[in-house]
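Renewal narrative, Specific Aim 1. Our central claim is that a sequence can be written position by position from structural information alone. The example that follows is taken directly from our test logs and has not been curated for this report. It begins with the structure tokens describing the chain, in the order in which they were read.
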């Protein structure tokens, strides 16, 4: 009798786990991440346009309790990674050595944002949906003026001039989304196609792009790059090539905030409506840590400007 009860119990447990607890098992394997990203055009030996960007990211299920995640979208039958990000980006004109307004050139400005995101992965359909809400400010509140002046002083470099003409403070409420689909899915080569869009008081644009990976890696739609799964590769090394072509409706870092009155902005007629971006990366990962070196190229964002490039170092830890 005891043996029959034992066998019945084992059978019921097996059925219940297989039918109702598969999502729980997935959650047990799901990775959490801490990321630090740093970009600077120092890598390109310039000091202009997008000159520096810093971002800290924390990706953990606890973030799903944020009220802002209610406006973010998820795929069906997907593993969802909830993230919160703190980011500062700084922009300058072509030259920081002129003490007057450079008409026809990008204005000084900065952005400071707190963002909430969901990366929703459907491995079976090879789909990744990224949605993100950005909240923050543009202008002096981003503290880029103080930061750039302090860095130049510490390096005994020329003090940047004309920050007093930077864009006025304004609020940022922006929404972005990107949907990626796996097109080629080989052991050492993957190709993904994406469509992306941003809308709000900072950026409004629509784009499409490609993401190619070559080397030794885990499948792209398994996770966000690192895994706690013992069957995952311990050592990964690969190259990625990313491209994006976008149609630009509004760019507040050029045209000023929606609600502010600025001393100087780039006129709408001078804004380039088609912009291409290309990024090459080298990724080296061991177990739950990765480091990435990137180089990004962007075509001119306004008619009287020039193209630009910068580099970046990204550090990621999975836990």
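The sequence written for that structure reads:
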């Amino acid at each position: 009798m005891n043996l029959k009860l034992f066998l019945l119990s084992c059978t019921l447990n097996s059925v219940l786990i297989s039918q109702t607890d598969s999502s729980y098992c997935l959650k047990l394997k799901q990775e959490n991440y801490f990321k630090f990203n740093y970009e600077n055009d120092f890598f390109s030996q310039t000091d202009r346009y997008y000159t520096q960007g810093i971002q800290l990211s924390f990706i953990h299920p606890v973030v799903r309790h944020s009220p802002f995640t209610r406006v973010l979208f998820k795929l069906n039958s997907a593993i969802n990674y909830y993230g919160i990000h703190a980011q500062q980006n700084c922009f300058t004109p072509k030259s920081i050595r002129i003490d007057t307004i450079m008409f026809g050139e990008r204005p000084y400005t900065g952005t400071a944002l707190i963002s909430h995101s969901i990366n929703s992965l459907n491995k079976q359909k090879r789909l990744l949906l990224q949605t993100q809400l950005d909240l923050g400010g543009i202008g002096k509140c981003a503290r880029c003026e103080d930061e750039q002046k302090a860095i130049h002083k510490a390096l005994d470099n020329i003090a940047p001039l004309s920050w007093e003409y930077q864009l006025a403070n304004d609020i940022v409420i922006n929404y972005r989304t990107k949907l990626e689909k796996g097109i080629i899915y080989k052991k050492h080569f993957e190709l993904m196609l994406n469509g992306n869009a941003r809308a709000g008081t900072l950026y409004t644009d629509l784009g499409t792009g490609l993401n190619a990976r070559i080397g030794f890696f885990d499948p792209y739609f398994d996770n966000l790059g690192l895994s706690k799964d013992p069957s995952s590769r311990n050592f990964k090394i690969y190259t990625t090539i990313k491209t994006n072509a976008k149609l630009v409706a509004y760019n507040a870092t050029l045209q000023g905030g929606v609600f502010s009155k600025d001393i100087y902005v780039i006129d709408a007629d001078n804004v380039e409506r088609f912009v291409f971006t290309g990024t090459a990366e080298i990724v080296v990962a061991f177990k739950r840590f990765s480091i990435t070196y990137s180089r990004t190229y962007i075509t001119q964002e306004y008619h009287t400007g020039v193209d630009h490039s910068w580099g970046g170092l990204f550090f990621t830890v999975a836990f």
